[in-house]
Write a structure and sequence with these properties.
The complex is a heterotetramer. Chain A has helices at residues 27-37, 41-45, and strands at 2-5, 19-22, 46-47, 50-51, 55-59, 62-63, 77-82. By secondary structure, chain A is α+β, with helices and mostly antiparallel strands. In chain A, the strands form two sheets. Chain A has a five-stranded mixed sheet with strand order 2-1-7-5-6, with helices on one face. A two-stranded antiparallel ribbon of chain A has the order 3-4. Chain C is of the alpha+beta class. Chain C has three domains: 18-25 and 458-596, Aldehyde oxidase/xanthine dehydrogenase, molybdopterin binding domain (Aldehyde Oxidoreductase, domain 4), CATH 3.30.365.10; 32-137 and 210-259 and 265-297, Aldehyde Oxidoreductase, domain 3, CATH 3.90.1170; 304-456 and 601-748, Aldehyde Oxidoreductase, domain 4 (2-Layer Sandwich). Chain C is built from 20 helices and 30 strands. Chain C has a seven-stranded mixed sheet. In chain C, a hairpin with a 6-residue loop joins strand 28 and strand 29. In chain C, helix 10 packs parallel to helix 11 (375-393), helix 11 crosses helix 12 and helix 18 (638-657) crosses helix 19 (715-727). The radius of gyration of chain C is 27 Å and the shape is globular. Chain D folds into two domains: 8-83, Beta-grasp domain (Ubiquitin-like (UB roll)), CATH 3.10.20; 92-164, DNA polymerase, domain 1 (Orthogonal Bundle), CATH 1.10.150.120. In chain D, 36% of the residues lie in helices and 15% in strands. Chain D has helices spanning 29-36, 92-99, 109-122, 128-134, 146-169, and strands spanning 8-14, 17-23, 55-58, 61-64, 77-79. Chain D has a five-stranded mixed sheet with strand order 2-1-5-3-4, sandwiched between helices. In chain D, strand 3 and strand 4 form a beta hairpin. Chain D starts with 7 loop residues before the first strand and ends with a helix. Classes of the chains: A alpha+beta, B alpha+beta, C alpha+beta, D alpha+beta. Chains in contact: A-C, B-C, B-D, C-D.
Chain lengths: 87, 289, 749, 170
């Protein structure tokens, strides 16, 4: 099971749950399962069918550029963190 | 940048005619380090720019023990501080010309130009005031002499009337018992405008007390100031830290600084005290050397 | 010193573009000319906030020599769409409005019209004849004032984004971020010592010496050709295409040599305007930005207001942290707050922490990235608080950092866990350094240390290597070279192939000729484009194996490549160049290609030591000695790694001591020149000593970590700590300029 | 108001060669060098004398060419970065900048080289303090100056060694 971390700003939607285990194969699975459990959380994480441009997804501390189709391993950790501008 | 005409007269007479003809539309070009920027940025305008560097009298630089220093108005800063004899005699002038801009600026900028630009923060003006310099001016009505201490009339404003220009700066002769110094405070170590600048000149008597002194202050009023009371106070006194500190307090009383991005009025006033003490100490060491 | 297994990596060859750059032959954008080239000039707003009621360009258009005039009306309407720019994203409507104001000006210097003419003087004089009628609006430049509910509103349609949730009423706060880890209230309850303070930092500019410049040619076939100074030619292409509403394939960007960027040459400013001028005039148009405009109208990096609180146990173990951070976005929402929030506690393991961040619009130029964007501001707060904790606990500042330093497995407040990193190794190198072990003597002198972290990113890079008849290589890559990266890429390829760096001619391609490559930024070029060069070399080698097998009449599987790049098979051996020239005479030419998108951050850490002397009479701080310690993973060209460390440190010293935007009561910048925006001169700094730590990086074949960004972070807090050590005065505001230090010393007496 | 001013004919010497050009009085020497004479090695960084990127030598003195009018070049001897190397190859100061990695983006490099050459000629054996003082009018934002100072010191060493050599050879 992968561990999905809920951003602090969305924990009001998850009744305070900070992280949860999920059986997922990619980021789309994460979004779908989160939405099923916590309705309307998708709108906070996504725009249309993409991860919101102000966010990036970190899988095992690696920032994926593959969006919804990024693969997740059974023991992965998934975080939603702000997009970074570099210098 | 608006276009203008350019003329490079070779005699004082020709320059005077050009300046008289064009009145306030004429601008003098010596080193150009201020005027070219001002024209480019629209801070000043010109119909004609008169380059005075081809007039021999303006590039002349001579010293005699009788008449002192004749410094042509267009002489570049580096010609002063690189001249060991001059720099030794006129410490304050060498100090100030060595820190205007960087080397590239010092290769072009002239003391005459720095004076005529009449910036309250100009580096050479307090040095010239401390050295009791006067400007030799020529114009349609002939020649006249203006003490540097009375030359500036406000930020960017000087005592010249249309058609007049500074031919030379004259500074009294210096003897071994005299010493002078100029220091400014800037946040960086070079390439900056003085937050405060102070010039000090002292003459020692035979027993080593102060026979005469002149203190001047820059960037603390609309024009550079001659600190008369503070200077007078030192006359006859022993040159020591206590007396320098008292002079510094007197100097602080005449300043009317503004608060701007370079410093607050409070900070500037404080710096006057610091720099009066420091420049007097240097001037003393030079007078004793 | 351990012996290096490498032949080329770790050596210091002369850079390939060096001779051009010391003889004046290197072509920067302003040096590039086309026949019939027109000069453009941009008219800018004198007001910080005003409605544009009308613009009358007729007198400018009638001026002899003028070929075109453009205003916001000539710019296509762009939707409120977010575009990904590889590193970061941008709202295209904001980007377009920042290039040319449409209805409203939002800062002094905001472009309102542009003119092209036969020369720049005519264009400038004509622009002065354009009459713009403004309706003045109240303005605000202070972050805290701008957050007030009754503050002048910059954008009526800006509603605070709370991770996807929009506020009900418009405000200047574009974004609120919030991170939590553990239970911060409990953490502070359990803490034996708590320190808390407010900090402020000023707006600063990247200060690259080359002003922005552009040459644009809107060709008759509808293609726009741009020659420009950019950190990313593909990003420039995309932004320009989106603003002009044409296809990306209709834009060709040729990156010229670039005279510095540091994050400030990613967004476009001049490109769309020059393209539209070119379209209207039917001529190529160049625009060179005056230095004043560079300060007033490009993207400096945010000013900040921060309140940070940290608690620790008596033994120095950090327990809890709390940070409230507001960054100035400038005229449009920025993005620098995110990394700021992520970096505030990023050097230390803290069990319980909470971070709140706000991105606040004000009537100042739109802020942008500047070397480790957002990290320097928060480090100024956190790294000084570390010293305050150490003092209260009577622990050495180095010891408290060692005790809490993040290492492999440490979890950041924003969530991710660090892989193998080198902060502890940097602190150990600091502990063992000559500088740290040399006593500092003399009055008014003090020593300070500080750490710093920057993510470093991968993103996309492409490279191709073509083999010449003599076995030398032409390396085509997509990263614009700002500081010698052609050399570091060629060296990696040379190492891969077993040839010399001088056997490779590296060249930065234009957007038509090289595969997509993200910006030169994020400390990514030597890492990611280096990986592309390596992979292109590997591709070339595998093609050559096949061909060598043909040549040597054996199976491909029988051909092997040694560590030194020598090919062997069927009893024959040949070095790379030898084999390559043999293969050249028969069969197709050899071209190796690679395009990569590494996704792992390279996690750069550094630690600095500084000795200062403070003039008690004036508050002026002199840097006596400075040492930068940084983990480079593996230094490809040590001289250029040292150069990054030294240059970054001196930028940080400038930020610490004197650099700041001054605004008058009318919210106009008053120091938009190199005279009054006081960047360090040569006389303001000593030699900068460097210690390169090499902990390797498993995500790169040669172990490279990005090095460009971290060195700017520690100087402000290290100098703040040194000033405290010298004077017992704690500075909480940047810059620590003489008037501020003097005033603080007065009040702490 | 001023109508189009007549261009002025100027004869000058640039890098040892006699050059003639026409310019408007308002054209700076920097504009003339770059736009009229094609000597684009001279860079514009600030156009008001505060960065030194446009440094050229006029009559043996380093100046900011943005603060000189083109017309003032009449009769002058001008040296630019393009004139530092000669048929024998790069000048030691150029070699030392390359060997010592004293440049990153390279935009300030021509100005530094010209100022450094003036310094080396005028003050051989200059101390680090003198180098830093005399070149404080040249800004660099990439290097932190360390490697620039070292390159100048190294060039100074090489030049004095070669002077010594030529003395012994005499």
């Amino acid at each position: 099971m992968a561990t999905i971390f809920i951003p602090a700003q969305l924990r009001e939607l998850t009744a305070g749950i900070e992280h949860l285990e999920m059986d997922v194969h990619n980021v789309r699975d994460v979004i779908n399962q989160l939405e099923q459990r916590f309705p309307s959380i998708r709108d906070r994480l996504c725009q249309q069918d993409q991860i919101s441009p102000s966010l990036q997804v970190s899988i095992d501390s690696v920032i994926t550029s593959r969006g919804m189709i990024a693969k997740i391993q059974p023991d992965s950790e998934v975080h939603f963190i702000p997009a970074i501008a570099g210098g | 940048m608006k276009d203008f005409q350019y003329a490079a007269p070779t005699t004082i007479q020709d320059a005077t005619s050009l300046l008289t003809e064009h009145g306030s539309g004429a601008r003098i070009l010596a080193g150009g380090t201020d005027i070219i920027v001002q024209l480019r940025e629209g801070l000043r305008e010109a119909d004609i720019v008169v380059d005075i560097k081809k007039i021999p009298e303006l590039s002349d630089c001579q010293y005699s023990d009788v008449s002192g220093l004749y410094l042509g108005a267009a002489v570049a800063c580096c010609d002063i501080y690189e001249n060991a004899d001059l720099a030794g005699r006129y410490g304050a002038l060498a100090d100030s010309t060595h820190i205007i801009g960087g080397w590239q600026i010092q290769s072009r900028a002239s003391v005459g130009g720095n004076l005529c630009n009449a910036s309250p923060a100009a580096d050479t003006i307090p040095a010239l005031i401390a050295l009791n310099a006067e400007a030799q001016v020529t114009g349609p009505a002939g020649q006249r002499t203006i003490a540097v201490a009375a030359f500036c009339k406000g930020p960017g404003k000087n005592a010249l009337v249309d058609g007049e220009f500074v031919v030379a700066i004259k500074i009294p002769p210096q003897s071994a018992n005299m010493g002078s110094a100029y220091q400014r405070f800037i946040p960086r170590n070079e390439m900056d405008i003085a937050v405060v600048g102070v010039g000090s000149w002292i003459e020692l008597d035979t027993v080593g007390n102060i026979a005469n002194a002149r203190l001047s202050l820059g960037a603390v009023a609309a024009t550079p100031l001659f600190a008369e009371e503070a200077s007078q106070f030192l006359v006859g006194k022993e040159p020591n830290d206590d007396n320098f500190a008292l002079a510094a307090e007197l100097a602080k009383q005449i300043v009317t600084p503004i608060t701007d991005m370079r410093g607050t009025a409070q900070y500037r006033t404080h710096l006057v005290g610091v720099l009066v003490k420091r420049t007097l100490t240097t001037a003393l060491a030079r007078a004793q050397a | 010193m351990a012996t290096t297994p490498y032949r080329v990596i770790g050596t210091r060859p002369v850079r390939h573009d060096g001779a051009d750059k010391v003889t004046g032959k290197a072509v920067y954008t302003a040096d590039f000319k086309l026949p019939g080239l027109q000069a453009g000039f941009i008219l800018r707003s004198p007001h910080p906030h005003a409605k544009i009621l009308s613009i009358d360009t007729s007198a400018a258009e009638a001026t002899a020599g003028v070929s075109a005039v453009v205003t916001g009306a000539d710019f296509p309407n762009v939707k409120n769409k977010i575009a990904h720019l590889g590193e970061g994203s941008v709202n295209l409507a904001h980007l377009s409005a920042n290039c040319m104001a449409k209805d409203k000006v939002l800062y002094k210097g905001h472009a309102v019209a542009a003119v092209s003419a036969t020369n720049a003087h005519i264009a400038e004089e004509a622009a002065a004849k354009i009459i713009v009628e403004y309706e003045m609006l109240p303005s605000v430049t202070d972050i805290i004032e701008a957050m007030a509910t009754d503050a002048p509103l910059l954008h009526a349609d800006l509603f605070t984004d709370d991770l996807g949730l929009k506020a009900d009423t418009a405000s200047n706060v574009a974004v609120h971020l919030h991170f939590e880890k553990g239970d911060v209230a409990t953490g502070f309850e359990q803490a034996d010592v708590v320190v808390e303070a407010e900090f402020k930092t000023a707006t600063v500019h990247q200060g690259y010496i080359e002003p922005h410049a552009i040459v644009a040619d809107y060709n008759e076939d509808g293609r726009v050709r741009l020659w420009t100074s950019t950190q990313g030619s593909f990003t420039c292409r995309q932004q320009t295409a989106e603003i002009l509403q044409i296809g990306v394939g209709d834009v060709l960007v040729t990156p010229c040599e670039i005279g510095g960027g540091f994050g400030g040459k990613i967004a476009v400013y001049l490109e769309p305007t020059a393209a539209i001028l070119s379209k209207k005039s039917g001529r190529p148009v160049s625009i060179r930005m005056p230095r004043t405009d560079v300060f007033e109208a490009t993207g400096p990096t945010p000013a900040s207001f921060m309140r940070v609180k940290v608690g620790a146990k008596n033994d120095g173990t950090l327990l809890a942290g709390e940070a409230w951070i507001a960054y100035d976005a400038g005229a449009f929402p920025s993005g620098v707050i995110g990394p700021g929030c992520m970096c505030v506690f990023s050097c230390y393991d803290i069990e319980h922490a909470v971070v709140d961040g706000y991105d606040v619009c004000v009537n100042k130029p739109h802020t942008k990235a500047y070397r480790a964007p957002g990290a320097t501001q928060v480090a100024f707060a956190m790294e000084q608080l570390m010293d305050e904790l150490a003092e209260q606990l009577n622990i050495c500042p180095l010891e408290i950092r060692m005790k809490n330093a993040v290492k492999e497995g440490s979890r950041r407040v924003d969530g991710p866990v660090y892989p193998q990193i080198g902060f502890v190794e940097c602190l150990e190198a600091l502990r063992d350094s000559d500088h740290w072990n040399s006593p500092l003597e003399g009055d008014n002198r003090g020593r300070g240390i500080a750490g710093g972290f920057w993510f470093g990113c991968g993103l996309k890079s492409s490279a191709a290597c073509s083999v010449n008849a003599d076995g030398t290589i032409n390396l085509l890559e997509g990263s614009t070279d700002i500081g010698g990266s052609r050399a570091s890429l060629a060296m990696q390829l040379a190492e891969t192939l077993g040839i010399e760096s001088s056997d490779i001619n590296p060249m930065v391609g234009d957007t038509d000729s090289v595969g997509y490559t993200d910006v030169t930024g994020g400390s990514r070029v030597t890492f990611a484009t280096g990986l592309a060069a390596y992979e292109a070399g590997r591709d070339l080698q595998s093609q050559m194996k096949v061909r060598a097998a043909e040549l040597w009449e054996c199976e491909t599987s029988e051909v092997s490549i040694g560590d030194d790049g020598t090919f062997s098979g069927n009893g024959k051996t040949a070095g790379f160049k030898d084999l390559a020239s043999q293969l050249f005479s028969g069969g197709a030419a050899l071209v190796g290609r690679a395009t990569v998108a590494p996704e792992c951050p390279t996690n750069g850490f550094g630690a600095h030591i500084v000795d200062v002397e403070v003039d008690p009479d004036t508050g002026k701080v002199t840097i006596l000695r400075y040492t930068v310690i940084q983990d480079a993973g593996k230094a490809i060209h040590p001289s250029y790694v040292e150069g990054q460390l030294q240059g970054g440190a001196v930028q940080g010293i400038g930020w610490a001591l004197n650099e700041e935007y001054f605004f008058n009561d009318d919210d106009q910048m008053t120091n938009a020149s190199f005279l009054d925006y006081r960047m360090p001169t040569m006389l303001d700094v000593p030699m900068i000593d460097t210690i390169i730590v090499e902990t390797g990086n498993a995500d790169h074949p040669y172990g490279v970590r990005g090095v460009g960004e971290p060195p700017i972070i520690p100087p402000p807090p290290a100098i703040g700590n040194a000033i405290y050590n010298a004077t017992q005065t704690r500075m909480r505001e940047l810059p620590m300029s003489p008037p501020k230090v003097w005033l603080a010393m007065q009040s702490s007496d | 108001m001023t109508t189009a001013t007549k261009k002025i004919h100027v004869t000058t010497t640039v890098n040892g060669e006699s050059v003639e050009f026409l310019c408007e009085p308002r054209n700076s020497l920097l504009e003339v060098l770059r736009d009229t004479l094609g000597l684009t090695g001279c860079k514009e960084g600030c156009n008001n004398g505060n960065c030194g990127a446009c440094t050229v030598i006029i009559n043996k003195r380093p100046v900011n060419s943005c603060l000189v009018l083109g017309v003032e070049a009449e009769g002058a001897e001008i040296e630019t970065v393009e004139g530092i190397a000669d048929a024998r190859g790069l000048h030691p100061i150029q070699d030392c900048f390359l060997e010592g990695a004293a440049l990153q983006c390279g935009i300030c490099t021509p100005g530094f080289l010209v100022s450094a050459k003036a310094l080396l000629e005028k003050k051989p054996g200059a101390s680090e303090e003198t180098i830093r003082f005399d070149l404080s009018g040249n800004l660099c934002r990439c290097t932190g100056y360390d490697k620039i100072v070292r390159a100048i010191q190294e060039a100074d060493k090489q030049l004095s060694a070669s002077t010594d050599d030529s003395k012994t050879n005499d």
